[in-house]
Every structure is written in C-alpha cells, then in structure tokens.
Amino acid sequence: MKVLVTGGAVGDLPVIRELKRKGHFVITSGSDIRGIGHAESDAYRPCDYTNVEGLVRLSIDERVDAIIPSAHDLAAIAAARVAKLLNFPGYDSPEISEMIHNKNSLRFSLKECGIPQPNFKVISSECDLEQSRELQFPVIVKPVDLTGGNGISICEDFDSVRRAFLYARNLSKVQKVIIEEFIVGTYHGFTTMVSKGKVVWHLSDNEYFLYDKFRVSATTWPSTLYLNQTEQILNYLNSFVARFNLVEGLLHVQLVCTENRVFILEICRRTPGDLYPDFVKLCGEESYLNQMINPFLGITLNNVSKNLSREVENAGVARFILMPEVRGVFEKILFSHNLRPIQQEILLRPREFIDQPRKTSIGIFFFRKPETFDLDDLIHIKERVRPVIS
Description:
The chain is an alpha+beta fold. The chain is built from 10 helices and 19 strands. Helix 2 (52-62) crosses helix 3, helix 3 runs antiparallel to helix 4 and helix 4 (94-101) packs across helix 5.
C-alpha cells in the first residue's frame, strides 16, 4: 500500500517507522525540507500540510491509497478535507475534525455535552476585549488554532490581557483568540481508542512543564489519576463520541484535575507529538501505534482492549524532552544520578547553533526503573550550551 504522511517532523517518526515496518511505501510531505522524517520515508514531495488542493493533487499524482495527518492540529483538519474529496478512510467529517482541532469550537462543543471546562471567552477584536473582565484572573490567552505552546500567555490583569491578545491574534491564521480562566491542578494525558461508538481502551499519564508553562516537557506512567477520576473522564468521552458520532480510531485528550473536578482542555485525533507513541509502547502497549494507524488504512479495529494489554508491572516509565535554557552553541548532553535512557532520539548535533531556546528540542529520552518516577529524576538531565551574547 502507498501511504502519504503529510509531514516529516520528529512527531511523525513513529508513524513513518511503523508503516515501513509493515511493508508500506511511505511518501512524506510538508514544507520543511529538513524534516527528520523525510530521510526515513521512501519519497519526499514538498507540500504544506495545510494545503488541501496541493495534497489532493499530490495524492492523485502519486496514486496513494491512504493519507495520515502530520502531528499537528491544522494538518488533521486539512487531511480530513482531502479524505472526503478522495474517499480515504479513517476520518470524521471535515466539520467535525475542524471542531475538534480548533480550541474555540471545541470549547462550545464540550459545553454542549455538559463536560466541565474553564470559563472562557472567544475574542476576535479589541472592541470585544471588555468581555474578558467577566473572567476570574489569572487567565490564559491563546490563539484558537496553534499548538505547542505558541502564542500563549498567562495574564494577571486586564492590561496584560490586551497585550497578550494582540500578540496571539497576530499569530492566529483565523485571527481569533480564546481567553480562559487558569485552572490550578495536576495535568494529564489520556489517550484512547474508539471503536463501535465508544471508548474501548485507555491509558493515562502525568504531564509536567519544566521549561515552559505551555509545552509539555515530561510525561510519566503510571499516572496518579484516581479510579473515580478515570471513570468520570470515560463518561465524558463516551458522551462526546456518541454526540458527534466519531469514527473509530485514536482519541487523545489533555486534561487538568483539581480536588473536585476534571476539566478537558484539548482533544485531537492525530498522532500525539514528541514520540508519544514510543512512550505508550514502553508502558507495555505494544500494538498502540498499529491500532492508531489501522483506521487510516481501512482496517477495522477488532478486539482492541485485548490487543492493548499492559505487560509491564511494577515499573515506572518516563519521557523527557530536553530543551536548552540559553542561546548559544550546543556542546553535549549531561546525565547524572546514574540515570541512562533506554531509548533516545537526538535532534541536535554538537556545535549546532541554538537561536530560540524555548522553541528547540535537543533530544527526546525514555527511561524505565523498577519503581514509579519522581520528577527529581528528570531535572538532573542537563545540556551544555556555550552562551552567545547578542
């Protein structure tokens, strides 16, 4: 089978590798010719993953049999539109995909399903900013259509909201910004498979923000979610799946838990980034990636809960994304406390220049130890960067 993966970034590597392992011919696209995934595909064809017309033309010219979106929300929306035009399997309607992968429309849909979320306002002009005064500070200001922490600010007062709004709106392709109350609690990923109209398997993790308040830098398993919290989340997601008649496949969620409530923050139906499928595999879910890919290949999910069964007992698993703290020349990675990765993906070479520290990943590392992970285990992994003062 010939499969088009609409990107070639590090987040797309698990999909590319799994497709190759299964013997498929893999074409990658995307506008970044330097994408790390292109070297592992069979062919690279430049095309931005949001360019629906270009992806349609590429799919026809290359006679591809299936399309899988890059690990980005805008890529998921575009791929859903291509899938409808070319009758590719594995996708909700373009309207449902856009609702899920846009922060503002998702908020309204979750509210419609009776699922708790932070109080919020969607703002598109300075004239409407006064509405944000109705929210309790601090608030988060973010573009409705970006991921990875881009364009997000935490604001303590109205003046900072105005500045953050202008910054976020300039980055948004649709010129819309969502302002929502900041919820203090524990953060978690909750990844699931949907089959026959309901969630049939799930795994949860703990999320940590060690460098940037808006970009996950570490995940650990097992999670600290209580059983009653897990049951509540599953009830919420089953309600959401039924309300919008979602097709089978991956449904990945980010949420925050307080002492009394669970708030769903984001949902996606594309590959979670930063090699998250590799993290799930190390948690004992060997067929997670295969089950995630199958619906896009037209393969029905059967016995998902039986295929996805944890085999790792009494062990902690961690994924850590190492990011530099300063501009400068990258020299080396430093490990301490005898903690060594069991798997890693190095993304920078020695002597490479780092211009944007908080937007750069040096590498992604995976660890396992007999007991659960403490965050102190991970903060001792450092980088050596020779600072450059400009």
